[in-house]
Amino acid sequence: MNTSSQKLAGKVAVITAATNGMALAAAKLFVEEGAYVYITGRRQDRLDGAVKAIGRNVTGVRADSANLADLDRLFETVKNERDHIDVLFASAGFGEFNVPIGKVTEENFDKTFGTNVRGTLFTVQKALPLLKDGGSIIMTGSIASFKGFEGFSTYNASKAAVRSFARSWTNDLKSRKIRVNVISPGPIDTGVFEGVPQAVKDGFVTQIPLGRIGQSEDIAKAALFLASDDASFITGIEFCVDGGAAQI
User: Fold this and answer.
1) Where are the beta strands (DSSP E) in 47-91?
2) Given CA atoms 57, 59, 64, 68 in this order, what sign does their dihedral have?
3) pTM score, whole prediction
4) Catalytic annotation on 155?
C-alpha cells in the first residue's frame, strides 16, 4: 500500500480485547493503514494467535481490562516501547443472554459492570498520561443501551454508562482536544452467534433494514474513521453501525 494514502501512518494504537471479532478486525485494519498496534487478551494462546493473524507491527500484552494491575502493565509496556498513544480503542466487553431482572445475580452484575464500565473507565484513565493531545478515544457501546432488549438489562445498562462516559469525557478532555466517541454495533456476526439457531439469526435479519447481519469489518471501518483525521471535528457521538436496526 502507498504510505501516502494510509490514514494512520506513524500512529500508535492500543486496542483492548482484540483476540477475535470486531476488535481483531480493527487491529488488522489499523496496521494496514500504517499504525503500530498493541492488543490485549486474557488468554495467552488466543493472544498469540491474534498477533500471528495480524502479522506485523503488533505487540500482544496479556491483560484483563477489569484488572487494574494488568492495565498498569499494559501501559507501562507501551510507555517503555513507544512513549505515547495516538488512538485508544477500549473494546473489552461482556454480556449474558436471557437474564431477566428476577434472575440477575451478584456475579452477573459484577462481571458485566466490572468489564464494561469499570474496565472501560480505568482503561481510559490509565491511558491518559500517554495519550497525545488531539488523540482519539473510541469505546464499544451497543444499540442495546437504548433498545432495552429483554433479559439483557445489566448489559443494556452497562452500555448506557459507556455512552454517558463519552459525553462527560468529551468535556473533561476538551482542553487537550482529545476526541471521545462510542461505536454502538447492532447484530454483528461474531462469536456471540456461535451455537445460535439459524432461525434466531434470521429473526434478527428481519429487523435490519439493510437485510443482513453485520460483519466485524463493518465495525473496523467505523473505528478507522473515528481514529483518523477524517473525523477531526467529531467528538462525543454515538456512532451506530447497525444496518438501521435501531434507527427506525
Assistant:
1) 58-62, 85-90
2) negative
3) 0.95
4) yes
